[in-house]
Amino acid sequence: MPAVTETIDTVQSVTEGTYKWGFETDIEMEFAPKGLNEDIVRFISKKKNEPQWLLDWRLKAFAIWKKMEEPVWAAVKYPPIDYQDAYYYAAPVQKVKPKSLDEVDPELLRTYAKLGIPLKEQAILAGVEGAGETPSDAGRMPVAVDAVFDSVSVATTFKARLEKEGIIFCAISEAVQTHPELVRQYLGTVVPQGDNFYAALNSAVFTDGSFVYIPKGVRCPMELSTYFRINAKSTGQFERTLIIAEEGSTVSYLEGCTAPMRDENQLHAAVVELVALDDATIKYSTVQNWYPGDAEGRGGIYNFVTKRAHCRGRRSKVSWTQVETGSAITWKYPSCVLLGDDSVGEFYSVAITNNRQQADTGTKMIHVGKRTTSTIVSKGISAGRGQNTYRGLVRVAPTASSARNFTQCDSLLIGDQCGAHTVPYIENRCMTAKVEHEATTSRIAEDQLFYCRQRGLSEEDAVGLIVNGFCREVLKELPMEFAVEAQKLLQISLEGSVG
Amino acid sequence: MLKIEGLTAEVEGKQILKGIDLEVPAGEIHAIMGPNGSGKSTLSYVLSGREGYEITGGSVTFNGIDLLAMEPEERAAAGLFLAFQYPVELPGVGNALFLRTALNAVRKARGEPELDAMQFLKVARDRLKALHISEDMLKRGVNVGFSGGEKKRNEVLQMALLSPKLAILDETDSGLDIDALKIVADGVNALRAPGFSSLVITHYQRLLDYIVPDKVHVLMNGRIVQTGGPELAKQLEESGYASVQAAA
Questions:
Q1: DSSP state of B89
Q2: What does residue A307 show for φ and ψ, rounded to 5 degrees?
Q3: Beta B65-66 vs B53-62: how paired, if at all?
Q4: Radius of gyration for chain B, computed over Cα atoms and rounded to the nearest angstrom
Q5: Which residues of A290-317 are buried (b: 16+ CB within 10 A; e: fewer)?
Q6: What is the dihedral sign for C-alpha A256, A330, A380, A453?
Q7: Shortest Cα distance, chain B CAs vs residue A498, angstroms
Q8: Which residue of B72, B104, B158 is in closest CB contact with A5?
């Protein structure tokens, strides 16, 4: 809880209305030619030194994509995207692949340091072998980071420490080389190539992302995280993340993302696949802070993302938590297919749209196994001329006897030019299932603001405090380190929304 | 401390305050009494800077500074505190966090160092103990699910923490049982000092048995119509506002 006050202090030092992650890193880059065709797909595959099966897999995806049309059902508006007018591969030039963090380009390390992402293993920096075993800050768990810069992963920390537990945490392109059998077994089994337009595009041209494998019975000893950074101009980022939790294992994974401020729109089309086997638990948290565009809606990231989890095992559990503050447009529905009996799916979401931002986000909970349960808590905040839509599906198959779902969708409006929409679909084909849906829409009341201001809080701090209170149920699901970051973001995202 | 001269104000085009003249010297407690609709709450909101109240004339100075030119939070930082008639609920916002945020905002504006969570807790515990309020109060959401009495106690706790120079109590006694009334009165009496003033707005004389005012003003139809000592409150209790109206 002290975090909020800290937030308020921090935010006061930030210049109003600026996106502080909007800087550009000047670094020598290598690009594929602009545009998208089979040669580009082959180029990317070759760059990554991929086996034939993966190239074939990509080409199949590309063939499917060419026949597909962009979805138009979401409540978002944008001019047509010219898919030929973008780079599909951009990577910092590296003469040799760095074997350790010491060999990573210092400019990249500086970039991540500036973003507040330490690409160092605290104790390892001191040069003491084995010192990495104990967290240097008392009581503070280290976080392993995979850093993805445009199209490639530039560094992954704590790999050795994790390997001791049998955990694989690396760039997916690396996993293709080192654990091809695992990648081949699971890739595309949760989100198939032809799942949707953007997933097909991603399958054809995905460049990097994280790969996580937690062996049977292992509880991952630290938070795993990936930090995505789009830097190059006119470049799309297509990352692919695959997480496999074997029987009885547990993992908490976080992702964060930022991009420079630009007048152009840039495309980010990611695919995330999660597989949880018997008694496994995956907690997946996102703090999405792509550049949202300016106050007039110029520039910003188009965030078209497909995230899905298969709870394949009995009593398996997947929990999605997302804080969506950035992007010009957000189109994402992190979902759970609850196959195993007694499996559990959760979706906790905060989505903020300010200025001209548009978000169409929610979840799908597909109940197949017996006694499966799902919980959906969605908090949408609209300010400025922002448009915020919750779109969700709860489907209960005839096999899912005694399945249960609880959905709560709350919308908060700030000002009188924004919009909040709730589109819940419920398809129940099982007599013994119980599905509940609650929804509210409210405004920040004038008396709440005045009460806070009479106690000495500025109007913006008061809004921040009230919004943080509104989102509390979701924010408390975030790992501690991220909760602080998320609270700051909520406040910054709403700057200029009052008064 | 507080000087009001010829203050007139409107709400939604309707004139509510019709020329208030009032001076509260430092160290004094003044009561404002009046029937419903006389402008008591409007006066407290105008002094604290709530939106929707249009000032059409007159002036208010607070320790020599033009109060009406300041934002509500600036008035708070300058030492003005309003205990609300209906304290507002802030769902999901912890009371401890809210109190600390408020205290630090005010401290910062006064150039005093801010308190961290531990320092705050120590100060808060002292105040709670002095006011005989349970520590559970800190753990709950701001006023959420509070009984009427608990909400008022929370106002008094905030007042004690923020140590204002001028505390305006807007019918803080309404709906309170005698125990809660004593807590409110103790809270105000504990702050009594040469540099502290208070404006106690009330409908009934009851609260003034516990907070003995230096002066009592009767507000009717947007004007102060009578001023006297504590005995005026007792007189009103017996003969009602009608007698004053007749006299005025």
A1: P
A2: -125, 130
A3: antiparallel
A4: 18
A5: bbbbbeebebbbbbbbbbbbbbbbbbbb
A6: positive
A7: 14
A8: B104
Q: Classify each residue of A245-280 as buried b or exposed e, where b means 16 or more C-beta atoms within 10 Å of its C-beta.
A: bbbbbbbbbbbbbbbbbbeebbbbbbbbbbbbbbbb
- Look at phi and psi of residue B93 and say left if phi exceeds 0, alpha if psi is from -120 to 50, else beta: beta
Helix A480-493 vs helix A2-12: crossing angle, to nearest 10: 40
How far CA B111 is from CA of A2, A462, B78, B108, in Å, comes to 21, 20, 11, 5
What's the token pair of residue A81?
């995207």
| Burial zone of B242 (CB within 10 Å; 0-12 exposed, 13-18 middle, 19+ buried) | exposed
Q: How many CB atoms lie within 10 A of CB A39?
A: 11
Cβ-based burial of B4 (10 A; exposed 0-12, middle 13-18, buried ≥19) = buried
Chain B residues within an 8 Å CB radius of A450: 50-51, 72, 88
Q: Tell me which CATH homologous superfamily contains domain B2-89+164-247.
A: P-loop containing nucleotide triphosphate hydrolases (3.40.50.300)
Per the document, the length of chain A is 499
The domains of chain B are located at: 2-89+164-247
Distance CA B231, CA B220 (A): 18
Q: Which of residues 433-452 of A touch B (CB under 8 A)?
A: 445-448, 450-452
- What is the ipTM, given to two decimal places? 0.96
* Mutation for A interface: B73, B81, B159, B166, most A CBs within 10 A: B73
**How many contacts does A have with B, using Cβ atoms within 8 A?**
94
- Which tokens is A144 given? 């392993």
* Tokens at B89, concatenated: 């609920």
Question: Which among A390, A245, A249 is positioned nearest to A324, based on CA atoms?
Answer: A390
Q: Which chain B residues touch A469 with a CB distance below 8 Å?
A: 90-93, 141
Q: Where are the beta strands (DSSP E) in A70-121?
A: 90-92
Q: What is the pLDDT along chain A (499 residues), one digit of tens a residue?
A: 333 333 333 333 333 356 777 777 777 778 888 889 999 999 999 989 999 999 999 999 999 999 999 999 999 899 999 999 888 888 877 655 566 666 777 777 777 777 666 666 543 333 333 333 333 333 445 778 888 877 777 778 888 889 999 999 999 999 999 999 999 999 999 999 999 999 999 999 998 889 999 999 999 998 898 888 877 777 888 999 999 999 999 999 998 877 777 778 888 999 999 999 999 999 999 988 888 888 888 888 899 999 999 999 999 999 999 999 888 999 999 999 999 999 999 999 999 998 899 999 999 999 999 999 999 999 999 988 999 999 999 999 999 999 999 999 999 998 888 999 999 999 999 999 999 999 999 888 889 999 999 999 998 889 889 998 999 889 888 887 777 777 777 777 777 666 4
DSSP code string of A379-444: EEEE-TT-EEEEEEEEEE-TT-TT-EEEEEEEEEE-SSS-EEEEEEEEEE--TT-EEEEEEEEEE-
Query: CA gyration radius for chain A?
Result: 22
